[in-house]
């Protein structure tokens, strides 16, 4: 039973990730993405596993953009939205690289703390990029320290303040990292790097690399 669960966990996680990205299912930025990408870095060392993770993210992002464009009348397939999407993937890459600093043998609390830190990195990277590049030309995002602080705390008019996204980002990172890493440890999931001589020498760690005006969200 444990072997079946271990073998099926990646597929289960991918299905959960895709399902939980449905608009309105979870509060804004309370996302499973941060925890899953972090755990992928910590537990999945093969290119196939990492490719599956980012493949699901990309497919669901495209579907979400099409949903907003054609069902909600939002300009979601324009150049500005593509810039925001690129910012998100820059943030995901940061979380993944942080996850590679951990392994299946890391303590559960350390993994949860890493997931929260990864979510913090995502928030800082994406909101700083949104302020710096400002593809939607938001007037609040002036190229000053005050403009940067506005991007991190208040955001643009007509949208919830970005500090609420920050809160949900940290909650999502901690909660879903706890769930995913706990499930992996319960099933006895090990990466090739943790199996030592059974799997040969460990692979070298490598960092690998929808849409609302004012902040990037998962």
Describe this structure in words.
Helices cover 63% and strands 0% of the residues. It has seven helices and no strands. The chain has one domain. The two termini are 33 Å apart. α1 packs parallel to α3, α2 (33-43) runs antiparallel to α3 and α2 (33-43) crosses α4. It is mainly α. The model is unreliable at 191-215 (pLDDT under 50).
How are the secondary structure elements laid out?
Elements (H helix, E strand, L loop, with lengths): L1 H19 L12 H11 L3 H25 L7 H21 L8 H26 L11 H9 L8 H26 L31
Helical residue percent band: 55-70%
In DSSP terms, counting alpha (H) and pi (I) runs of 4 or more, how many helices? 7
What kind of assembly state do the chains in view correspond to?
Answer: single chain
Query: What is the radius of gyration?
Result: 18 Å
* Shape category: globular
The succession of helices and strands, N to C, reads HHHHHHH
Total strand count, please? 0
Count of domain modules? 1
Strand content: under 5%
Query: How far is the N terminus from the C terminus?
Result: 33 Å
| Integer average pLDDT | 80
Backbone structural class: mainly alpha
Sheet having the most strands: none
Stretches with pLDDT under 50, minimum 5 residues: 191-215
List keywords for this structure.
about 220 residues; about 65% helix; mainly alpha
Quick structural gist:
With 218 residues, this protein is mainly alpha-helical.
